[in-house]
């Protein structure tokens, strides 16, 4: 009887030790493929004597690298925070999005303010369509134009998309984002969008409840009523931010939609 109890206790302690060992490994290491991918990102954003994320690669422990968060159980990258990391003196960047493909559990990608003007040909955001965990993408304060929309169209898992303060102009073609059926929040502040274009069977933006169009009337531009009218086509749209806009006249009837807040 005593021997059986001892064996049971020993087995429990062994399992506990294995769990601790796994947790220790996850916190103090990273997968080779993801570590290599991080170093390639570092090279593409930087130059040999640059200061972009300078500590990356100096220690083997990727978990300690700036802007990198891990799942301690799987050892995989789940969040990359890289806002404003690229030096202005390097000029504009054409992004090779394939560099982010190895991060199979990536949930949050922040590339805000890195002087990105577009993507390398055939290496746009469509290359991330297999990242089913990606729910947050921040591309704000870059130089993307309307051509980025088709590239984003395959990111069906996204819930929050920020492309504020870029160079989006004129008609915003929602049909190019038809697969974004889980999207809930969209930040389009600081652009010059005139209207949203969608067809009756468009699914993209179907679940969007919040849209920001703040600061969209710079350089004396008036906020187009066609833009406000086109917002009413989104079925679950409830909250609109119009902060820092020069609004004149009455537009209440234009935004007549139940519980809409603005």
From TrEMBL:
<keyword id="KW-0433">Leucine-rich repeat</keyword>
<keyword id="KW-0677">Repeat</keyword>
<keyword id="KW-0732">Signal</keyword>
<dbReference type="InterPro" id="IPR013210">
    <property type="entry name" value="LRR_N_plant-typ"/>
</dbReference>
<feature type="signal peptide">
    <location>
        <begin position="1"/>
        <end position="29"/>
    </location>
</feature>
<dbReference type="Pfam" id="PF08263">
    <property type="entry name" value="LRRNT_2"/>
</dbReference>
<protein>
    <recommendedName>
        <fullName>Leucine-rich repeat-containing N-terminal plant-type domain-containing protein</fullName>
    </recommendedName>
</protein>
<dbReference type="InterPro" id="IPR053211">
    <property type="entry name" value="DNA_repair-toleration"/>
</dbReference>
<feature type="domain" description="Leucine-rich repeat-containing N-terminal plant-type">
    <location>
        <begin position="32"/>
        <end position="68"/>
    </location>
</feature>
<dbReference type="InterPro" id="IPR032675">
    <property type="entry name" value="LRR_dom_sf"/>
</dbReference>
């Amino acid at each position: 009887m005593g021997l059986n109890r001892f064996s049971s206790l020993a087995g429990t302690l062994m399992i506990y030790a294995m769990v601790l060992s796994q947790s220790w490994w996850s916190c103090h290491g990273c997968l080779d493929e993801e570590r290599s991918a991080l170093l390639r990102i570092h090279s593409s954003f930087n130059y040999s004597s640059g200061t972009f994320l300078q500590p990356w690669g100096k220690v083997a422990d990727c978990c300690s690298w700036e802007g990198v968060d891990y799942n301690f159980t799987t050892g995989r990258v789940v969040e990359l925070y890289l806002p404003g990391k690229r030096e202005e003196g390097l000029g504009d960047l054409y992004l090779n999005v394939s560099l982010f493909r190895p991060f199979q559990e990536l949930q949050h990608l922040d590339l805000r303010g890195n002087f990105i003007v577009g993507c390398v040909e055939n290496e746009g955001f469509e290359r991330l369509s297999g990242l089913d965990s990606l729910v947050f993408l921040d591309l704000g304060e870059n130089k993307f134009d309307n051509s980025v929309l088709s590239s984003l169209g395959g990111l069906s898992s996204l819930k929050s998309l920020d492309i504020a303060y870029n160079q989006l102009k004129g008609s915003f073609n929602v049909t190019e984002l038809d697969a974004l059926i889980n999207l809930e929040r969209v930040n389009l502040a600081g652009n010059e969008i005139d209207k949203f274009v969608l067809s009756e069977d468009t699914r993209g933006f179907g679940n969007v409840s919040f849209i920001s169009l703040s600061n969209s009337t710079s350089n004396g531009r008036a906020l187009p009523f066609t833009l406000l009218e086109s917002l009413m086509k989104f079925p679950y749209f409830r909250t609109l931010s119009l902060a820092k806009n020069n609004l004149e006249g009455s537009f209440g009837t234009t935004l007549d939609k139940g519980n809409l807040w603005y």
